[in-house]
Specification:
The protein is α+β, with helices and mostly antiparallel strands. Helix content is 35%, strand content 25%. It starts with 20 loop residues before the first strand and ends with a strand.
């Protein structure tokens, strides 16, 4: 039996400030001015200059104490007590809560802060529970983000998440995916049907039968032979499961407990051994854990209820990483039955050193992935395939997972269609497993999976929309279903779509969330980029035509963010004239194409001498040059709403992406050019 030894997290340094106020906050859900990750920006008032680094230190400590990422956590003080704090936060409410707790702690004395630390963490954890993705869903979403695939939460407080873009997307709900069949899910939720299918396939599973009453449960137990297991037919997470029952009173009480958790009650022969959970993803075993019983140790003075509170509910596994569920003793019928078997009540005072058993099952804590015998892995994979699941948690009872299953009399007792991943992410003993990455690889086997071609345009609104719509026509000619976003408008195959009810994702996000879109073009001006950030982490093609009249520092950050979004192997089409852009172009991870009507422009001349790509106007044609190699493209024959810079951007973009150039001739015949 594993007994927990609680320790209290603390912060070593303490500071004090008299007052500080949050003027306003802004939250970005994706790529933004500050970071590729979601962040909260807060404008602060009345912060004394020495306190800025101290506030940063507190924010880092709070984020680390509740196991939140803190890749972005920085202060930017200005004059007169004003300044900006930026911290990573997946949800706006979470970021505001962390900031508020840090400011309140900063205003306390050292002694007061030590007292209030645990309460501050509890408030943050409450917001995490209420507002954020569950840990199983979050680990898969984070694995997708590491591949620069978007992860869009489809409901504000749910675990339904879209991974990937447009028609290449996949959806997950906890650890279930688009590939999880509805029939397989229904089979897995019916333990009797699951057992029957497994037995038909030759997979060992314990004998058992359904009991319609407590008396019938006892009759079945006598027929099978005690000890037995009593559990709900369609329960989950070990709720209502009672193990190792040998007498009539315990079996009948266990029937009542199981009936409250499911529609029917199953009585099974008890298999001797340890409970194990084996996670199958696709046709592979990717993780395995072994269960331990859970209990407390008496001190001769405290009641069982007090021991549970001190040794379990205040343990970091409950408070920090939540790998252990908090126990509400008065409401946990399963534990109360277990205490009765030991002739104890919550008010009982165990002797010093007396071990009190609370849970026999559902407490999977020891990673044993590297110990799984090939025969055990084979049976787990076959069980998942027999039920029809692509992702499955296979519950086994085994004496030793290092030995073949049949030789030790082991059996599969349950198959879970939506398994929790928590025990694999935060085992108490052993190595955490990258189960999110394994599931993400299963959903997107190849590096290009989950992606569609994405073009990002940064230009004045009218110019950006015209460029976007023209590029969309060019892509539609290649067979794409193209979505266009500009401002708050979304177009699909050149048709403007109805606006959604407010609040809604940005137009760019809506394009990338649309299941029919096979290519996306997202245009925004500087103001929109500042307010909304970017709908994508990476794009294949970026077209930047600088605007004027924007604060230089802000414009530089916007340009830097747009350039860093170009994926390696992608292309940025840039127009010279902005000193910041010319300087930042060196930071672009992809290929750079400079465009300007004048072939002799110094930026084009310098770039071309270095074997770079350029586009310009010569003899009434667009010339796209890659070093010494030149390709000629048309100009529209009649004047309309085009200017040369915009048309050069379109022509150079399609040329750089190796789109079919004859299509541009057709587009040119339908367009004009305003030679300004």
């Amino acid at each position: 039996m594993r007994v927990l030894n609680p320790s209290v997290p603390h912060i070593e340094k303490v500071h004090n400030c008299q007052q500080a106020y949050v003027l306003r906050t802004r939250h970005w859900t994706g790529n933004n001015l500050w970071s590729p990750h979601p962040v909260l920006e807060a404008q602060l008032l009345d912060m004394e200059p020495p306190l800025w680094p101290q506030l940063e230190e507190l924010l880092h400590a709070l984020l680390q104490a509740v196991a939140l990422p803190d890749r972005v956590c920085e202060g930017h003080p200005q004059s007169n007590g004003r300044g900006t704090i930026v911290l990573e936060a997946s949800e706006a409410a979470l970021g505001r809560c962390v900031l508020q707790q840090a400011l309140e702690l900063l205003a306390l004395s050292a002694t007061q802060r030590a007292v209030e630390w645990a309460a501050a963490l509890a408030r943050i954890r409450f917001v995490i529970d209420e507002e954020c993705l569950g840990p199983s869903t979050a680990c898969i979403a984070n694995a997708a983000l590491q591949r620069y695939l978007p992860a869009y939460r489809l409901f504000p407080k749910g675990n339904l998440v879209q991974l990937g873009m447009g028609a290449a997307q996949q959806r997950i709900w906890t650890a279930e995916s688009d590939q999880t069949g509805a029939i397989a899910q229904d089979i897995a939720s019916d333990k009797a049907l699951t057992k029957r299918l497994l037995a038909n396939a030759g997979i060992p599973t314990p004998q058992g039968d359904l009991a319609a009453s407590p008396a019938q449960a006892w009759q079945i137990a006598q027929r099978l032979g005690v000890p037995v297991v009593v559990k709900p037919l369609d329960g989950n997470r070990a709720r209502g499961v009672s193990l190792d029952l040998v007498d009539q009173a315990s079996i009948e009480a266990a029937w009542q407990l199981a009936k409250r958790e499911g529609t029917q009650v199953l009585v099974e022969r008890c298999i001797r051994g340890h409970e194990h959970r084996v996670l199958v993803v696709g046709h592979q075993v990717v993780a395995a854990t072994r269960g331990e019983t859970l209990g407390v140790v008496g001190d001769g003075q405290s009641t069982v209820a007090e021991l549970v509170e001190a040794q379990i509910n205040q343990h970091p596994r409950c408070l920090v990483d939540m790998t252990l569920e908090r126990i509400e003793l008065s409401q946990n019928a399963k534990i109360l039955v277990e205490l009765q078997r030991q002739q104890l009540q919550p008010e009982s005072v165990p002797a010093a050193g007396q071990e009190v058993l609370l849970l026999r099952t559902g407490n999977l804590t020891v990673d044993c992935t590297d110990e799984v015998h090939p025969d055990v892995a084979h049976h787990a994979i076959m069980a998942a395939r027999t039920i029809g699941l692509d992702i499955a948690g296979i519950d086994m009872v085994l004496q030793d997972i290092r030995q073949p299953m049949l030789e030790q009399g082991g059996a599969i007792v349950e198959v879970n269609a939506g398994p929790s991943l928590l025990m694999h992410l935060y085992p108490v003993h052993g190595q955490p497993r990258a189960v999110g990455e394994a599931i993400c690889t299963h959903l997107f086997p190849h590096p290009a999976d989950g992606r569609i071609p994405v073009t990002g345009i940064l230009a004045e609104a009218d110019t950006g929309l015209r460029i976007a719509q023209t590029l969309a026509v060019w892509q539609q000619a290649q067979g794409h279903t193209t979505g266009v976003a500009s401002g708050d408008a979304m177009y699909l195959q050149a048709q403007r779509m109805l606006p959604p009810a407010s609040p809604a994702p940005s137009a760019g996000q809506r394009v990338l969330m649309h299941c029919a879109v096979t290519a996306a073009v997202i245009a925004q001006d500087l103001d929109t980029a500042v307010q909304d950030g970017w709908a994508y982490a990476q794009c294949d093609l970026a077209i930047i035509q600088p605007e004027s009249g924007t604060d230089a520092a802000v414009q530089r950050r916007v340009l830097a963010a747009q350039l860093r979004s170009v994926r390696p192997g992608g292309t940025a089409v840039l127009t010279p004239g902005d000193a910041a852009l010319e300087d930042l172009a060196l930071t672009c991870p992809g290929r750079v194409v400079w465009v300007h009507p004048d072939e002799q422009h110094p930026v084009l001349q310098s770039h071309r001498r270095q074997q770079g790509s350029v586009a310009f106007i010569r003899d009434g044609q667009v010339v796209c040059a890659d070093g010494a190699t030149e390709t000629r493209l048309p100009l529209p024959p009649q004047q309309a709403h085009w200017d040369l810079y915009a048309w050069l951007g379109v022509a150079a973009a399609g040329w750089a992406q190796q789109w079919p150039l004859p299509v541009l001739d057709v587009i040119a015949q339908q367009s004009g050019v305003d030679k300004r």
